[in-house]
Amino acid sequence: MPRPTDRIARHATGSRPSDYDTLKEAISERYETLSKRLQQVAEYALAHPDDMALETIAVIAERAKVPPSSLIRFAKALGFDGFTRMQRLFRDRLVSRTPTYDDRIKRLSEEQRSGGQPLPSMMLDDVAAAGIEGLDRLRQEMPLERLNAAIAILGKARLVYVIAQRRAFPVASYMAYLLNELGRPACLLDGVGGMLDQQKRAILPDDAVVAISFQPYAADVAGIAERCLDDGTPLIGITDGPLSPIARSADVSFEVIESEAHGFRPLSAAMCLALALSVSLGHHLAADAR
Questions:
Q1: 212: helix, coil or strand?
Q2: pLDDT class for 6, splitting at 50, 70, 90?
Q3: Is the pLDDT of residue 99 over 70?
């Protein structure tokens, strides 16, 4: 039986969500019980919350590639009497969120394209702008209690294992390096030489694992997450949403949404989170030693 996205706050099954955070939890917890069509709506809703807040049912249905009636059935499956009531929670998220760099970034991109800026310069500016947007979203939407829960898990662990593959691998490598430098023994599960199976056999229940993966999720990373769930090894996930296989297995899961620049996503926010967790843990360990 999968764990919830994290154990800090659980949504009561059967109750209607009252804000965006509990709505996300409800979607994650009920995802496996939904029909395939409604799962498609759930995936779109979590990936495009601004569209869910601002667009009409017809536009959302077209973009999600579902009939408009599916949106209404999705809302009712979550306890709402119609789509409009559910949409209010998505709108509340926009209203409560402090204005950030989003509008500036969009204006900057429009100016660059209309001004005929050279491609290398435009790419540098756009990638930097996307990084700023991802970092600002991370800073505004990251709950302090989730950071504290992750630091507590890492602080108690005998050994911390860190795993990621493909584009997320630099984040895992950097975090393993930081943890070792800051006094918390860490092992990078890199699978070099096809030795990942041998490496993961060393993981014990009193260790902790940090699993990092974004769509399309790496099968080996998802497999490690499932192993932690089965063995009772504490797992911290860094991923891109509550429907990720990493999030569904994690004790504490961090949702990191990197903004896109011309089809490429920088790792600015994920690197920042890895650094913040590692350095905070270093201070935690130093304080305990004193």
A1: strand
A2: very low
A3: no
